[in-house]
Design a protein that fits this description.
With about 90 residues, this protein is α/β, with parallel strands linked by helices. It has helices spanning about 40-55, 75-80, and strands spanning about 30-35, 60-65, 85-90. The model has no long low-confidence stretch (mean pLDDT about 90).
Length: about 90
Amino acid sequence: MMIRVLNPTSESVVATLNPAPRLTGLKGKTVGLISNGKEGTDGFFSHIERLLRERYQVAEVVLRIKSNYSAPAEGEIIEEARSWDLAISGLGD
């Protein structure tokens, strides 16, 4: 009797990425907010924007809303995010 053992792990090699350098502060920085577009994000991001401007003196806050809450952000948003110093992604219901 032969016993066959299957390996359930993936054979693909996962690429490792280095994280972006940590910011030393937020003053004068551009912060992007990416919303999933659900109702609960309006108040959350309004509060976050106010805190970023008042407490941390960020130069600019950019809000982008995904067109489909259950899908990844569109390529245009990802491309624009490359120019931001920091991105915050949030969801709500």
